[in-house]
Write a structure and sequence with these properties.
By secondary structure, the protein is an alpha/beta fold. The chain is about 45% helix and about 15% strand. The strands form two sheets. A four-stranded parallel sheet has the order 2-1-3-4, sandwiched between helices. It has a four-stranded parallel sheet with strand order 6-5-7-8, with helices on both faces.
Length: about 350
């Protein structure tokens, strides 16, 4: 019997330092997030450099600003998406988070109890990255091998260039843009260290990290696991679909940590520069996320907007993620049914 496991990032159980701290510890201690030897990772995460206690307090304050009555926005939106996808098929669909609850183990256990022996693991990340799709794949495989030896896992690949995703993402942007007369539209992707890009791609394929220049040839085996190329290609295809003036488009990367070279240009720096250079109206979309979360609601919708306005900007539109949009639900249903019948 076949079934599907949808996997998103995860969230603390509450917006308090008490619950944020273990969530951040699980996230930052993941070797695919901070890819250094274990003891060094312990020192960085739990020591004075990243300072888990202080970071938990600051993150809790941020979570408190975006928390809903129903709970974490990411969890609530993921549950709504899960419910809508399940309504489209008689195949069992389970929901899991890479960090926090419900866990991947819990999701696989739920499917196992329903008699599922063949599972499609579908990470809710359009672009492949070590710290998203790869860590989900590795953990799911480990749990399957240790806990469910008779279960077969199939891992759904990055879907940044699939027609159904591009259309769903583009139409969502179009709907929220409405008649907003922007001067620039910023495609802000979650940042990763440049080192991650080099480690996940074929040796020698990352020719340049120059601004707006592809480091790998898109839609080839060279770029199969290149997050940076996936981001650029997402923007290109969405912009082409919407017929947006390319001179109005920017690619940027957000949410970097200090102490390493991350993908640039940086979202916060570029948004500030736009305002300082006289740009008055911008829209920001975050296509690395399918569900609104701390990085979209607080980092972009609150902090980036405040910085833009304080530096001379006037109108700032934070475009929501696809969340439970019908075209996004249809895209997932299409991929699931294709897998079911093959």
């Amino acid at each position: 019997m076949k079934g599907v496991l949808l996997v998103n990032l995860g969230s603390p159980e509450s917006p308090t330092p008490k619950d944020v701290k273990p969530y951040l510890d699980e996230f930052l201690m993941d070797k695919y997030v901070i890819d250094v030897p274990y003891l060094l990772r312990v020192f960085l995460v739990r020591g004075i450099i990243i300072g888990l206690r202080n970071r938990a307090e600051k993150s809790a304050e941020a979570y408190q600003q975006i928390w809903w009555n129903e709970g974490s926005p990411l969890i609530v939106l993921s549950e709504r998406l899960h419910k809508k996808v399940q309504a489209q098929t008689d195949m069992p669909i389970a929901l899991a988070m890479r960090y926090g609850k419900p866990s991947i183990k819990t999701g696989l256990q739920e499917l196992h109890q329903k008699g599922v022996t063949d599972v499609l693991v579908l990470p809710l990340y359009p672009q492949h990255a070590m710290a998203s799709t790869q860590t989900i794949t590795e953990l799911a495989n480990k749990i399957q091998k240790e806990q469910f030896p008779n279960m077969k896992l199939t891992h759904f690949p990055a879907f940044y260039n699939r027609k159904e995703y591009v259309v769903a993402q583009a139409e969502s942007i179009k709907k929220h843009l409405g008649d907003f007369d922007y001067e620039k539209i910023v495609f802000s992707y979650h940042g990763v260290p440049e080192r991650h890009i080099r480690k996940t791609g074929k040796p020698g394929t990352h020719k340049s990290f120059e601004k707006d220049v592809y480091c790998c040839t898109p839609n080839t085996s060279d770029s199969e696991f290149c997050y940076r190329t996936h981001c650029f290609e997402t923007t290109r295809q969405v912009v082409e679909y919407l017929n947006i003036d390319k001179s109005k488009v920017m690619n940027t990367f957000q949410s970097r940590l200090s102490g390493d070279k991350w993908l640039d240009p940086y979202t916060d720096v570029e948004i500030d520069n736009l305002a300082k250079n006289g740009v008055k109206k911008i829209a920001v979309v975050t296509p690395a996320f399918v569900s609104d979360c701390l990085e979209t609601l607080e980092e972009i919708g609150m902090r980036a907007k405040e910085d833009f306005i304080s530096n001379g900007g006037e109108d700032f539109l934070a475009i929501p993620c696809m969340n439970e949009d019908e075209l996004w639900v249809e895209a997932l249903h299409t991929w699931i049914e294709d897998w079911k019948t093959n």
